[in-house]
Amino acid sequence: YILMAEPDHLIVKPIPNLSRDGRAAAFPFFYIEPKKYEKVLRKFFPEKEGPITNIDPIGNSPVIIEKESLSRIAPTWMNISLAMKKDPEADKAFGWVLEMYAYAVSSALHGVGNILHKDFMIQPPWDLEIGDSFIIHYTYGCDYDMKGKLTYGKIGEWRFDKRSYENKPPPRNLPLPPNGVPQSVVTLVKMVNEATASIPNWESYAAE
């Protein structure tokens, strides 16, 4: 089995093998909408392959999958990604999630179903509690005023946004969020601080 994850995934606790009976385990993304884009997707998933609902609302990550299944999906995933990118309609429709759609289509073409686990990961600041989740995905910026109120879309008095560190890593000892900020965001920053404190010579990476 293979776990596909990303650099902006923080593993909160050990992840069990959630895959079962030849089906992969995956996280359902609300913005992957095969039904909405059926007309475009039919270029890559013809009607003879079955209903559009065979395409799960997933990307390739986080996913737990049998190695053999991934070995079948991977070449198709690459080829469909390239084909979608070369297709102006698909490229415009899917944008930065194009490879996610390509993976979902490829899984369906090879008959690899997915068990959808909403608790696979959380995405602060929208998910407030960690609950039973295994991963924190720090994809969205977290902006708050000093009273702990979310100011999404406006740079907050306190903020953590990975885009602030595109040119260099974050420094050690990031300030913790103010009182009232959700547990998910507090845990995220504490885990980043724990990691940077544990990596030797981190200051040299994060230097001006």
Automatic annotation (TrEMBL):
Gene Ontology molecular functions: glycosyltransferase activity
Keyword Transmembrane helix annotated: yes
GO CC, alphabetical: membrane
Residues that span the membrane, as ranges: none
UniProt keyword Membrane, yes or no: yes
Keyword set, alphabetical order: Glycosyltransferase, Membrane, Transferase, Transmembrane, Transmembrane helix
Subcellular location as annotated: Membrane
Membrane topology label: Single-pass membrane protein
Pfam (any one): HPAT
Cited InterPro entries: HPAT-like, HPAT/SRGT1-like
Domain Hydroxyproline O-arabinosyltransferase-like: 1-203
PANTHER family noted in UniProt: HYDROXYPROLINE O-ARABINOSYLTRANSFERASE 1, PEPTIDYL SERINE ALPHA-GALACTOSYLTRANSFERASE
Name assigned to this protein: Hydroxyproline O-arabinosyltransferase-like domain-containing protein
Species whose genome carries this gene: Aegilops tauschii subsp. strangulata
